[in-house]
Structure formats: structure tokens, C-alpha cells
């Protein structure tokens, strides 16, 4: 008799079978991760510098706006990364 876990895994494999990646694809995925981590870090450094400048000038509205911009840019970069990873995985 199969456990509930085994039955769930069988159903999952039927609806979304696992994809085997080549070494080249794994390397490309790793490179994409590194590239986007660097882009995110670069934007964080730049915007956090602007936030600090705005805060020191007492412009709290500008600092809040920049913080929201950072969140949006981070989400956009993450979304772009996932999109490129999906394309790479599919072929």
C-alpha cells in the first residue's frame, strides 16, 4: 500500500514531470543567478546611497519614495530572472 506522500508525488509527476537539465543548462542558470544578484546589489547600493542623502537632508518623503522604488526594481529584476530561467529550462 502506498503512502499519501507517494500518491501525491505520482500525481505531481503526471501533471508536471521533472525536467532533466544538462550541465550546460545548469551552468547557464548559475551564471544568470550570479548576474542578477550583482544587478540587484548594484541597484541596492545606489538607491540606499540616495536614501541616506535624502534622510540626512530631512526629505523623508523622498526617502520613502526611493525605498519603494528599490522594492519595485528588486521585484522586476527577480521577475526577469525567473522568466529567463524558464526559457532556458524549456529549451
Mean pLDDT: 91
Largest sheet: none
Percent of residues in beta strands: under 5%
- Counting DSSP H or I runs of 4 or more residues, the number of helices is 3
By secondary-structure content and strand pairing, the structural class works out as mainly alpha
How would you describe the shape?
elongated
Distance between the termini: 38 Å
Helix share, percent: over 70%
Task: Give a quick rundown of the structure.
The chain contains three helices and no strands. By secondary structure, the chain is mostly helical.
Characterise this structure.
It is a single chain. The protein is mainly α and 91 residues long. It has one domain (21-90). Helix content is 85%, strand content 0%. The chain has helices at residues 4-15, 23-56, 60-90. The longest helix is centred in the middle third of the chain and has 34 residues, at 23-56. The protein starts with a helix and ends with a helix. 2% of the residues are buried.
Any key phrases for this structure?
91 residues; mainly alpha; 3 helices; elongated
How are the elements arranged and paired?
Elements (H helix, E strand, L loop, with lengths): L3 H12 L7 H34 L3 H31 L1
Amino acid at each position: 500500500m502506498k503512502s499519501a506522500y507517494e500518491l501525491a508525488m505520482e500525481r505531481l509527476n503526471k501533471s508536471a514531470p521533472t525536467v532533466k537539465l544538462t550541465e550546460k543548462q545548469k551552468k547557464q542558470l548559475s551564471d544568470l543567478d550570479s548576474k542578477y544578484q550583482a544587478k540587484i546589489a548594484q541597484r541596492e547600493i545606489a538607491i540606499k546611497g540616495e536614501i541616506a542623502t535624502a534622510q540626512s537632508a530631512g526629505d523623508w518623503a523622498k526617502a520613502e519614495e526611493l525605498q519603494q522604488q528599490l522594492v519595485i526594481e528588486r521585484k522586476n529584476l527577480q521577475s526577469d530572472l525567473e522568466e529567463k530561467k524558464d526559457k532556458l529550462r524549456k529549451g
